[in-house]
Design a protein that fits this description.
The chain contains three helices and five strands. By secondary structure, it is α+β, with helices and mostly antiparallel strands. A hairpin with a 7-residue loop joins strand 2 and strand 3.
Length: 136
């Protein structure tokens, strides 16, 4: 897995991460619909890091890693690495949607709907979010 970029853990800089992922997917020939889903999943994961990571600015950062699809059997694999406290992720059932008036609670469902595989782990004191989307 290769390190592609690091961005500040801010909502504004999440856009930079999304642009990098979009360019990577476009270079691989992904269709627009797949690019949209991959970018949406990345934005939701990165926004979760920003909103719930409890990082201390200015040290708070998100590192983006993109794996070569040739190494992933025809899939795009993205990892986001960020310091901060461990995250208690409880993946809801796909059909479990929060009340329509709720302001939160849809991010993990969106990630799950947009990628083929989603995982979170704590690795050597770092939060690692892994997203995988198969190429057609």
């Amino acid at each position: 897995m290769r390190h592609n970029m690091t961005a500040a853990a801010t909502f504004v800089d999440v856009r930079r991460l999304a642009e990098a992922v979009r360019h990577h997917g476009a270079a691989l020939g992904m269709a627009d619909a797949q690019l949209f889903e991959l970018e949406l999943a990345l934005v939701e994961a990165a926004n979760n890091i920003v909103a719930h990571g409890d990082q201390e600015p200015p040290a708070g950062a998100i590192a983006l890693y993109l794996e070569d699809p040739a190494q992933c059997r025809g899939a795009v694999v993205i990892e986001l690495h960020a310091a901060g406290k461990p995250v208690a992720i409880m993946l809801p059932a796909p059909e479990a949607m929060p009340d329509s008036r709720a302001e939160r609670g849809r991010g993990l469902l969106l990630i799950r709907a947009c990628v083929d595989e989603f995982a979170y782990e704590r690795r050597d004191g770092i939060n690692v979010w892994r997203l995988k989307k198969h190429l057609p």
